[in-house]
Amino acid sequence: MELDGRKFKDRAMAAMSKFKHNMKGTYYSIADIPTASVQELADFIQIHPDTHEIKKQLLGTTYTFFRLNVNNYRFYLETTNGRILQLDGSLSGKELVSYRSYRDSDDLHSPVKLN
């Protein structure tokens, strides 16, 4: 049985990424740092009563844009068909999260520091 170098590399990279996310989550938990995943933030933004929502039909696809300003937090979210395309968040002008589905899909459930 011959080892495929590309598959081996992909598995190793996935394992290291998962390990990194687990370590980050453990550290934040031990240090008592408030965190949330990109998915949790997106869910929060979509259900918050102060969120401004705009729907646009572009080339036959419906896109939904959300903006939320609460306390000193600012969030911007773009979705289509329930999929998160973009999420930006800041606290008092300091960037907390900058998620793009095309580059960060592995980080959807990784903890993000909220302070």
Provide a descriptive summary of the structure in words.
This protein has one domain. Helices cover 35% and strands 41% of the residues. It has helices at 5-30, 38-47, 101-104; strands at 35-37, 52-58, 61-70, 73-80, 83-91, 94-100, 111-113. The strands form two sheets. It has a five-stranded antiparallel beta sheet. A two-stranded antiparallel sheet has the order 1-7. The longest helix is centred in the N-terminal third of the chain and has 26 residues, at 5-30. The radius of gyration is 17 Å and the shape is flat. The N and C termini lie far apart (50 Å).
Structural class: alpha+beta
Number of E-state strands: 7
Query: What is the overall pLDDT average?
Result: 84
Estimate nothing, just give the exact number of structural domains: 1
Helical run tally:
3
Strand content: 35-45%
Biggest β-sheet: strands ordered side by side in the sheet? 2-3-4-5-6
Q: What is the N-to-C order of secondary-structure elements (H for helix, E for strand)?
A: HEHEEEEEHE
Helix content: 25-40%
Rg over alpha carbons: 17 Å
C-alpha termini separation = 50 Å
Task: Give a quick account of the main beta sheet: strands, pairing sense, barrel closure.
Answer: 5 strands, antiparallel
What is the molecular shape? flat
Uncertain runs: none
List the helices and strands and how they pair.
Layout: H1 5-30, E1 35-37, H2 38-47, E2 52-58, E3 61-70, E4 73-80, E5 83-91, E6 94-100, H3 101-104, E7 111-113
Antiparallel strand pairs: 1-7, 2-3, 3-4, 4-5, 5-6
